[in-house]
Specification:
- The complex is a heterodimer of chains A (about 100) and B (about 400).
- Chain A is built from three helices and four strands.
- By secondary structure, chain A is α/β, with parallel strands linked by helices.
- Chain A starts with a strand and ends in a 9-residue tail after the last helix.
- Chain B is α+β, with helices and mostly antiparallel strands.
- Chain B has two domains: about 5-140, Rossmann fold (3-Layer(aba) Sandwich); about 155-399, Phosphatase 2c, domain 1.
- Chain B has eleven helices and 16 strands.
- Chain B has helices at about 10-25, 35-45, 65-70, 90-100, 110-155, 205-220, 230-240, 335-345, 345-350, 355-370, 395-399; strands spanning about 5-10, 30-35, 50-55, 80-85, 105, 160, 165-175, 180-190, 190-200, 255-260, 265-270, 275-280, 285-290, 305-310, 315-320, 385-390.
- Chain B has a six-stranded antiparallel β-sheet with strand order 6-7-16-15-12-13. A five-stranded parallel β-sheet of chain B has the order 2-1-3-4-5, sandwiched between helices.
- The radius of gyration of chain B is 31 Å and the shape is elongated.
- Chain B starts with a strand and ends with a helix.
- In chain B, about 40% of the residues are buried.
- The chains are: A alpha/beta (about 100), B alpha+beta (about 400).
- At the A-B interface, helix 1, helix 2 and helix 3 of A face loops of B.
């Protein structure tokens, strides 16, 4: 996972699919990034542009990042989702919770 | 534990030398001898051997043949084999290692070989053998536990049967013997209630969670005058009341579709399940129930939408989990469109032979998974659950 911080926007770019086998590592990385940048971030952006596959554990990861950002009073949105990922988020009505 | 080591070599002096070398360095070992390949199998048929030191050039049956037969026979394939030979060319050594030998040494043995190398190789092979046996025992234990859990989960699942209002048809295949898919269908206060749910992940933890989902579903339904959306909200609330997730991302999360049929009135609520289908018997058409909803266990204040439709005699409701079409390898996790296409071209089976429809749909996706160029020769990687409820012929007349 790659991070960039610009004008208070922390962009987290996934470099592998958002599936159960990768989520454990993503979780700890996000926690560390947010801890490291505490006070410098206004919004968290999860960039899924290189992510082809997502499973149910991956969906809970996205929701987890959203919750963590919200708990810290930060904005949150997802960018770069494929049409398939958008369809899944719409089925689960997550597009009503955060911007996709 | 006493190890039994078989030395197979056609030269008696070599057998004696190897035995003497190992005897002095290995505790708790007894030695047996074979002077040709055939004798190896004679010994094996009578005694459990823990290690074979195998000469490659022997009369009757040479070491290559013996090694090949050992590794292709389930009874003996686990026994570690150290190859010994006067052959020094690398291709023969490489071949025996590829065939399954754990190690090799060449003859004649140097003093260093006798003092250090050969005993170490034997010790390592025996240690490897011990570890393999431990893994096999643990694996066996896990398989027994999985089977027990699978049997338990099977008891909890509804079986294909007929109720007063509907006939129920099911097809279920967990991916690891026990799975996170769960479904239920029962009659309560003159209504047919059903759920199909898919717990995040699969395997034992998901199986435990799916058992809880079923219990929570039944408890929620048995409250007076409840509706499918209220059942989902109630289960969702229970999850946050019962479990303390703290700041963890590890939630008990599942998608679910809950339905309730009373006479011809069908009420339902969806919590992220792939869109179910309705087959309308009179118009011979397929309708997609295209309402979504948040998975259960994600947000404590989540609410769910109540929808309703009127059904007629001969209509069917078809539900399925995403394990049917999702390979777990690529962007086919929204391939419910393929399910719809298949159903549209198999309306006759839905109407007249629901079990055939479920089987054919299952095998249709089985072939897709198997033939997929990216995933290769792959079976279903997730649990697969399908449920079809057919409104009985006399429903319409009862109204």
């Amino acid at each position: 996972m790659k991070k960039t911080l610009e004008d208070g926007i922390l962009t987290l770019t996934l470099q592998e699919d958002l599936i159960a086998t990768n989520v454990r590592e993503y979780k700890s990385t996000v926690e560390k990034f947010l801890q490291d940048e505490m006070g410098n971030v206004d919004e968290v952006v999860l960039d899924l542009s290189t992510c082809e596959n997502i499973d149910s554990v991956g969906v809970t990861f996205v929701v987890g990042v959203y919750k963590q950002a919200t708990n810290d009073a930060l904005g949150f949105r997802v960018t770069g989702s494929s049409d398939e990922i958008k369809q899944l988020f719409k089925l689960m009505k997550l597009d009503e919770i955060f911007e996709i | 534990m006493e190890y039994k080591i078989l030395i197979a070599d056609d030269v008696e002096m070599n057998r004696r030398l190897i035995t003497d070398v190992l005897k002095g360095k290995l505790e708790n070992a007894t030695f047996l001898q074979a002077s040709n390949g055939q004798e190896v199998f004679t010994v094996l048929s009578k005694i459990d051997i823990d290690l074979i030191v195998l000469d490659l050039i022997m009369p009757v049956k040479d070491g290559f043949e013996v090694l090949s037969e050992l590794k292709s026979d389930e009874k003996y394939s686990h026994i570690p084999v150290i190859v010994s030979s006067a052959i020094t060319e690398i291709s023969s050594i490489e071949m025996t290692l590829e065939m399954g030998a754990v190690d090799y040494f060449t003859k004649p043995l140097s003093p260093e070989d006798m003092e250090i190398i050969l005993p170490l190789k034997a010790k390592n092979a025996l240690l490897f053998y011990e570890q393999q046996k431990t893994i096999a025992a643990l694996n066996n234990e896990i398989q027994v536990e999985l089977k027990n859990a699978h049997d338990f989960q099977n008891i909890m699942l509804p079986k294909s049967r007929d109720f007063d209002m509907v006939d129920l048809f099911i097809k279920y295949q967990p991916s690891l013997g026990i799975g996170g898919d769960c479904f239920d269908c029962f009659e309560h206060n003159g209504k047919i209630w059903f759920i199909i749910a898919d717990v995040t992940g699969h395997g034992i933890a998901a199986g435990m969670a799916s058992s809880m989902v079923k219990v929570m579903f039944r408890c929620s339904v048995k409250k007076d005058d409840t509706t499918p959306d209220q059942v989902l909200s109630s289960i969702n609330k229970s999850i946050f009341d019962i479990f303390d997730f703290g700041n963890s991302f590890n939630y008990l999360v599942f998608t679910a579709f809950v339905g309730c049929i009373e006479n011809c009135n069908f009420q339902y609520s969806n919590a992220g399940q792939p869109y179910p289908l309705i087959y309308h018997g009179q118009s011979k058409s397929i309708e997609i129930i295209e309402e979504g909803g948040m998975p259960v266990g994600v947000f404590d204040m989540a609410t769910y939408q109540l929808n309703s439709k009127t059904l007629n005699e001969g209509d069917s409701i078809f539900l399925y989990t995403d394990g049917l079409f999702s390979s777990g390898q690529k962007s086919d996790f929204v391939n419910w469109k393929l399910v719809h296409e298949f159903a549209s071209s198999h309306k006759n089976e839905i109407a007249n032979e629901p079990n055939t429809f479920l089987e054919e749909l299952f095998w249709y996706f089985h072939v897709i998974h198997k033939s997929d160029s990216k995933t290769g020769d792959q079976d279903f990687t997730d649990d697969v659950a399908m449920m079809l409820l057919k409104i009985k012929q006399d429903q319409h007349n009862d109204e």
